Amino acid sequence: MDDVGDRSVEDEILQIIPPLDGSLHKGQSGRVGVLGGALDYTGAPFFAAISAQRVGVDLSHVICSPTAANAIKSYSPDLIVHPILREETPPDSLRPELAALLSRLHVLVIGPGLGREEYMQTFARLALEIAKEQGMFLVIDADGLYTVGGNLDLIRGYRRAVLTPNIVEFKRLSELVGIDPDTRPEDRASLVSKGLGGVTVLQKGKWDTIAVNTEGAESRAVHKTSKISPHEGGQKEVIIVNTPGGLKRCGGQGDILSGSVGAFLAWAKCYESGAFGDNAIPVSRMPILAAVGASMVTRTTSRRAFEEMGRAVVTQDMLSKIGGAFVELFGSGDVEVAW
């Protein structure tokens, strides 16, 4: 079990961060989609999508119900909002439009503001299947975890996914995959990952535990056809992110995390496609690197906001701190360009 202080991990994360040297055009630093947002939940998809942009992606899309669209649009003109999740629309009718939209994105975050209404859950399952067909990176959070909890085969073995459960969600996942409740706490995330066929698990807590365990599991075909093959012999890695965070945990911080994981995974997709970098890092490493990087950024963001606002801090206060937190951890990335 490693701490995030391991320089080799941080060096790998730096390699999948796009350069700021003027060489990339719009979209080559990441296009993120967030699927969520219904009548009662408009803040969560906003926080996830805008956090991805604050971390540094070029474009953030929110795919939501029409009942949430106007509110989300009013929060920021920077987000592209698609109010296509209509309760009366049959899933088969939505599939072509949704597939076309997802084909333009690098990563899909499922769950922030999704809710548990059956029509939203149905659309989440549809989006998940389309994303897997297209070989997208995935982040599953909040009620997206409820979706996959109803059928673990939706996500089992799909190693381009990162799950971000809180303490209650992690307990439910542990029970669903049959983890002995007497298992040592430090071993549980790895065993949940193993039970899900090697999916990356980011267990949120006082410290964040990030685990990948592919021992004895078969990978989905999408990895076997990747430009860079993963480790086929089995991989077990647990990283504890002990970056200091704020002392108050307010609702919405998890949405900043899921959006940040989405940003790093979008960069990973751009790196994989050759938009930048040298393709030296295996695709199989991307989810755990993205999870670690996003955890570090979110915790540092929380600390910086708490230092300023104290007990009064709310998630909105954290958004303006994301950029500074990123620079504190990974540098500005600025280079001198000769025009």
TrEMBL record:
<keyword id="KW-0547">Nucleotide-binding</keyword>
<feature type="binding site">
    <location>
        <begin position="204"/>
        <end position="208"/>
    </location>
    <ligand>
        <name>ATP</name>
    </ligand>
</feature>
<feature type="binding site">
    <location>
        <position position="255"/>
    </location>
    <ligand>
        <name>(6S)-NADPHX</name>
    </ligand>
</feature>
<feature type="binding site">
    <location>
        <position position="113"/>
    </location>
    <ligand>
        <name>(6S)-NADPHX</name>
    </ligand>
</feature>
<comment type="function">
    <text>Catalyzes the dehydration of the S-form of NAD(P)HX at the expense of ATP, which is converted to ADP. Together with NAD(P)HX epimerase, which catalyzes the epimerization of the S- and R-forms, the enzyme allows the repair of both epimers of NAD(P)HX, a damaged form of NAD(P)H that is a result of enzymatic or heat-dependent hydration.</text>
</comment>
<comment type="similarity">
    <text>Belongs to the NnrD/CARKD family.</text>
</comment>
<keyword id="KW-0597">Phosphoprotein</keyword>
<keyword id="KW-0963">Cytoplasm</keyword>
<feature type="binding site">
    <location>
        <begin position="245"/>
        <end position="254"/>
    </location>
    <ligand>
        <name>ATP</name>
    </ligand>
</feature>
<feature type="binding site">
    <location>
        <begin position="166"/>
        <end position="172"/>
    </location>
    <ligand>
        <name>(6S)-NADPHX</name>
    </ligand>
</feature>
<dbReference type="InterPro" id="IPR000631">
    <property type="entry name" value="CARKD"/>
</dbReference>
<dbReference type="GO" id="GO:0047453">
    <property type="term" value="F:ATP-dependent NAD(P)H-hydrate dehydratase activity"/>
</dbReference>
<feature type="domain" description="YjeF C-terminal">
    <location>
        <begin position="9"/>
        <end position="329"/>
    </location>
</feature>
<keyword id="KW-0456">Lyase</keyword>
<keyword id="KW-0067">ATP-binding</keyword>
<keyword id="KW-0520">NAD</keyword>
<keyword id="KW-0521">NADP</keyword>
<protein>
    <recommendedName>
        <fullName>ATP-dependent (S)-NAD(P)H-hydrate dehydratase</fullName>
        <ecNumber>4.2.1.93</ecNumber>
    </recommendedName>
</protein>
<dbReference type="GO" id="GO:0110051">
    <property type="term" value="P:metabolite repair"/>
</dbReference>
<dbReference type="GO" id="GO:0005524">
    <property type="term" value="F:ATP binding"/>
</dbReference>
<dbReference type="GO" id="GO:0046496">
    <property type="term" value="P:nicotinamide nucleotide metabolic process"/>
</dbReference>
<dbReference type="Pfam" id="PF01256">
    <property type="entry name" value="Carb_kinase"/>
</dbReference>
<dbReference type="InterPro" id="IPR029056">
    <property type="entry name" value="Ribokinase-like"/>
</dbReference>
<dbReference type="GO" id="GO:0005737">
    <property type="term" value="C:cytoplasm"/>
</dbReference>
